[in-house]
Specification:
This protein is α+β, with helices and mostly antiparallel strands. It has eleven helices and seven strands. The strands form two sheets. A five-stranded mixed β-sheet has the order 1-2-5-4-3. The chain has a two-stranded antiparallel sheet with strand order 6-7.
């Protein structure tokens, strides 16, 4: 989709393992600029998840992120929001596949990469959690590429709330990327308020009517460390220089700095 010269140029900014990952990184940049330049979408959708952390909060992107995770700010029918998204996305990515589940809408766009491989951009909208524990916040996002360049203000959450939901994701699913994102945040953002992260984690767990103790969470994560899928999820997302990262060392750090304070 994107000419090779632009992918080669961007590879000096994001050292992902595959050219199509670098290409998708540029596609995500363009999508964020288009979505948050829209007069309605910029007010109605808040960015969350790994893409929010890597694009807005980490000084350098720590890993490849493949999706755009959004939260519907207000409790309202989502149909108009979907129409607005398609207005800015379909013209250059084509018609998406749509799926609806309890509290989640997914738009999946498919294109072919420069080297002939399929690329999927998934936009997920959480239509259930119209809440921010610490309050929404605006962050400047910029893309400086010869293929897509521009700046836009993106509605998101405070860093501690993003990490609180990331901790919830670590507990609820089997993806090593969640542990890695927590590790990167704890090692690179020295102004983090750990108590706020924990407060947000427990607040979201209560929203899910779920009780979890420190020992339960630790046992949960330690069981996942024994599963090859947990590490295998993270490995393809890392830069070349971190491809041999010891996940047990990552866990030990997050355990001491965060889990033990629950």
């Amino acid at each position: 989709m994107i000419p090779r010269r632009f992918i080669q140029e961007w590879s000096k900014v994001v050292p992902w393992q595959e050219p199509r990952q670098i290409e998708q990184d540029l596609i995500i940049n363009s999508a964020l600029l288009k979505l948050y330049n829209h007069s309605e979408l910029k007010k109605s959708l808040a960015l969350r998840g790994g893409t929010a952390l890597n694009k807005l909060f980490f000084e350098l992107q720590s890993r490849y992120s493949e999706d755009i995770d959004l939260v519907q700010v207000n409790a309202e029918p989502v149909g108009h929001t979907i129409d607005c998204i398609r207005t800015v996305m379909d013209l250059w990515l084509g018609k998406p596949n749509r799926s609806f589940s309890d509290g989640l809408v997914t738009l999946s766009y498919r294109v072919v990469s420069d080297d002939g491989f399929p690329i999927r951009l998934k936009i997920e909208i959480n239509t259930r959690e119209h809440v921010s524990i610490l309050g929404f916040s605006d962050h400047l996002f910029s893309s400086k590429s010869s293929w897509v360049s521009g700046s836009v203000t993106i509605l998101t959450f405070q860093i501690e709330e993003l990490l609180g939901t990331k901790l919830r994701a670590l507990y609820q699913r089997r993806k090593g990327r969640d542990l890695y994102d927590l590790y990167v945040a704890l090692t690179t953002i020295h102004s983090l308020d750990i108590e706020k992260i924990i407060h947000c984690f427990y607040s979201y767990m209560r929203l899910n009517n779920t009780k979890v103790s420190k020992s339960t969470l630790i046992k949960n994560v330690e069981m996942k460390l024994k599963n090859k899928e947990f590490y295998g999820d993270m490995l393809p997302l890392l830069p070349h220089k971190h491809a041999a990262l010891d996940l047990n060392l990552v866990y030990s750090y997050v355990h001491d700095k965060l889990f033990m304070k629950l």
